[in-house]
Prior knowledge:
The complex is a heterodimer of chains A (114) and B (112). With 114 residues, chain A is an all-beta fold. Helix content of chain A is 0%, strand content 52%. Chain A is built from no helices and twelve strands. Chain A starts with a strand and ends with a strand. The relative contact order of chain A is 0.34. In chain B, strands 2, 4, 5, 6, 9, 10 and 11 form a seven-stranded mixed β-sheet that branches. Chain B is globular and about 40 Å long. Chains A and B meet through strand 5, strand 6, strand 10 and strand 11 of A and strand 4, strand 5, strand 9 and strand 10 of B.
Amino acid sequence: AQSVSQHNHHVILSEAASLELGCNYSYGGTVNLFWYVQYPGQHLQLLLKYFSGDPLVKGIKGFEAEFIKSKFSFNLRKPSVQWSDTAEYFCAVSRGAGSYQLTFGKGTKLSVIP
Amino acid sequence: NAGVTQTPKFQVLKTGQSMTLQCAQDMNHNSMYWYRQDPGMGLRLIYYSASEGTTDKGEVPNGYNVSRLNKREFSLRLESAAPSQTSVYFCASSASDSYEQYFGPGTRLTVT
């Protein structure tokens, strides 16, 4: 079965620090990749997505992610975090070619200290 | 345009009671989904409906039933609630030609 691994359960950073959250998946075929964010008390919102093309994708609020096919990875990055980035971040994967089911990672909680 | 709406926002049930969680979307999406979110577990798919009139089991369907009432509405029913079903339940929808899912605000359910 397809699985999605997020390496860090909880990350604590100071404002202006750089962020990288890891995500690896197990499926070997074509995939669609997503990062969702859940701010405290809110529902999930899409940060960015990758379907095909340029493996470096840019999302909202200054986030970006890089798809490295050889490493089965889709890591999320932001050069300089803000207190308002405090949230839980979920990586999700769906298989390509018509499969719309998402498999989520367990999430990484990010706490940004002012 | 409200997106995906869910009712109720909060619910407390006793073990053995039944209830239905409601979900509606106004984006004319064909596909709808029910997930549960538990601490440290991420989101797990309970059931999904690829189109009106069809439903399929996801990763954790036991103890739940669903109804795709029409294109807009997709309900989740707990026939006999158990403490293990204490969770936050999210509904989502997507267009048939899109892999992007849009989520509702969630229902926080506690079973005592």
